[in-house]
Design brief:
Largest sheet: none
Number of helices: 8
Number of domains: 1
CATH superfamily: AhpD-like
Structural class: mainly alpha
Distance between the termini: 24 Å
CATH architecture: Up-down Bundle
Amino acid sequence: MSLDALREALPAYAKDLSLNLSSLAAEAVLSDQQKWGCFLASAHAVGTPEVVRQIEAAAAAQMTEDAANAARAAAAIMGMNNVYYRALHLMHNAEYRTLPAKLRMNILGSPGAPKADFELWSLAVSAINGCGACLDSHEAEVRKHGLTNVQVQAALRIGAVVNAVSRVIAAESAR
């Protein structure tokens, strides 16, 4: 199983998504672990079963199990944080931003992969989930670790394409 299976499952109207999957799989500005972690975290963030299965299979040969678990953890923790921090940002009452979150986030301290990679995966998921505060926070962190704007853009592109592919696959299965 691979991204080729996903590409073949896409209908003709989603040809651009198929082409983007191919080009992103060949992307060379990220390490293989960074790239496949972005794919994996993004797939888990959206949660379309067939997309998760295919990307899990494709990523398995490119990442250690610890790194893959860290990518999954990035999707899990951002699923919580993106909702919480996006809500704080959208609410007019600024008092909520002064209160402690009181949400467990222990994984952030020791994610099981290099901090730069985990932050990059969290950035891709935050783009999918639409949290501007988290995007800014994770972008600042990856930049502190020496990643470039082109590398950040690659993570965002992966998140965008995996999100779109997931939605098309889910919609097609409902037809």
